[in-house]
Amino acid sequence: MEYSVRVMDKHIKVPAQGEKITMKDGKLSVPNHPVIPFVEGDGTGPDIWRASVRVLDAAVEIAYGGERKIEWMEVYAGEKSVNVYGEGEWLPQGTLDAFNEYLFGIKGPLTTPVGGGIRSINVALRQELDLYACVRPVQYFDGVPSPVKRPQDVDMVIFRENTEDIYAGIEYKAGTPEADKVREFLVGEMGVNKIRFPDSSSFGVKPVSKEGTERLVRAAIQYAVDNGRKSVALVHKGNIMKFTEGGFRDWGYELAKREFGAVEIDGGPWCQLPNGIVIKDVIADNFLQQILLRPTDYDVIATLNLNGDYVSDALAAQVGGIGIAPGANINYVTGHAIFEATHGTAPKYAGKDVINPSSVILSGEMMLRYMGWTEAADLILKGLDDTIQQKVVTYDFARNMEGATEVKTSVFGDKIIENMKARKA
Ligand SMILES: NC(=O)C1=CN([C@@H]2O[C@H](COP(=O)(O)OP(=O)(O)OC[C@H]3O[C@@H](n4cnc5c(N)ncnc54)[C@H](OP(=O)(O)O)[C@@H]3O)[C@@H](O)[C@H]2O)C=CC1
Ligand SMILES: O=C(O)CCC(=O)C(=O)O
Ligand SMILES: [Mg+2]
């Protein structure tokens, strides 16, 4: 690929061809040759990205015959960033600037160490760009092996609040002066007497705001309206965490009434929009058993950050696993969006070319659809569907699928491309 001399910072090469995606008056404007930044990711990220980018490019080429093309621009985060930029540079300013300026991006998974070390770069990106909605559709592809009897009954779209909650990582380690200060404040000034072992406790803070809840619930209800869905369920643990998770529920209902004209049904608090969409709520532990026993009761899900994290992996498992679970982090007001899989770096498979690339491919499919390139997005769904029907799959599906041909990540990508070409021929 040719590059211009213009650089964003010394490591980011801006493609010579290509223009920015922009947003004006709430409307996206997507040129035929958009520049889209990508982060390859850690662990299995490079294996997955290599296969995915070929599938995305092929879909666009087959659909539009050269008239449209994505001009990819590599930006760095995670381990590769430290290699390129130097020590401590896990999320360089140039990367943030690129995502900010070019509006859209796509990324592979990034490692977050447990217990210590750096805070999540994934979370930092969502916070820095204020990508407040994590949208994770969960749908079943016919033929995918699943642990449940009727995986086809699962058809949900999770809207997970993406910037607040305990997930924001505001916490203080036991034994530090900061933890001592928090303890002194809680016990000494606030009169809290419920901390069982105050001297050896670490402390975490769970901020949940009205504004944060409202913009997420608004996005979920709007999605339900735009896509003819049946219901929006607010999933929370508001019986225990009354002002945070309970606040999420109450603010959610209030917004549905105030902005969408919902009225209470059966004595409330459930309510209904004039077009019939039901707004309901469910306590999170009950929700986790209900999605297994009667998934057809649920459609669009609006929930807090940590609940959404658990729920998205659990639901993904019902339709075959996180190898096929896409997602997008979106700010619907500014138009910024970073598309990424639900799963992590799966480090034990790194560099082996065996991992399932479907989640990133489907995240790319979401991106193309969001850009309005629906023909290319549809082709990807067909190509993936055909490949699964032919039982040509990666190890994760092969281990539970009778008569499967187990293939490498790269070959799986080739097969999808072959099937997309056959569909178009
Ligand atoms: N957005 C992001 O960038 C995310 C990053 N992470 C980070 O990733 C790292 C590893 O996290 P971990 O908890 O192990 O979770 P992972 O999602 O990385 O992997 C857990 C298991 O899920 C299965 N799996 C994951 N991805 C795929 C795939 N593409 N195809 C098929 N199977 C897959 C594998 O199961 P099996 O062993 O059965 O084959 C794997 O061992 C951590 O540092 C974590 O913080 C985690 C989630 C999201
Ligand atoms: O940031 C991480 O390492 C984990 C994030 C995660 O699990 C998720 O967003 O689903
Ligand atoms: Mg997760």
UniProtKB/TrEMBL annotation:
Catalytic activity, EC: 1.1.1.42
Annotated residues for binding of NADP(+): 111, 343-349, 356, 395, 399
Site feature location: Critical for catalysis: 167, 237
The protein's required cofactors: Mn(2+); Mg(2+)
Residues that, per the record, bind D-threo-isocitrate: 120, 122, 126, 136, 160
Modified residues (Phosphoserine): 120
Alphabetical list of InterPro entries matching this protein: IsoCit/isopropylmalate_DH_CS, Isocitrate_DH_NADP_dimer_prok, IsoPropMal-DH-like_dom
Cited PROSITE patterns: IDH_IMDH
Modified residues (N6-succinyllysine): 107
Residues with PTM N6-acetyllysine: 149
Keyword line: Glyoxylate bypass, Magnesium, Manganese, Metal-binding, NADP, Oxidoreductase, Tricarboxylic acid cycle
Pfam families cross-referenced by the UniProt entry: Iso_dh (PF00180)
GO molecular function, one term: NAD binding
Keyword hit for Isomerase: no
Domain of life per record: Bacteria
Swiss-Prot/TrEMBL catalytic activity: D-threo-isocitrate + NADP(+) = 2-oxoglutarate + CO2 + NADPH
Family: Belongs to the isocitrate and isopropylmalate dehydrogenases family.
Protein name: Isocitrate dehydrogenase [NADP]
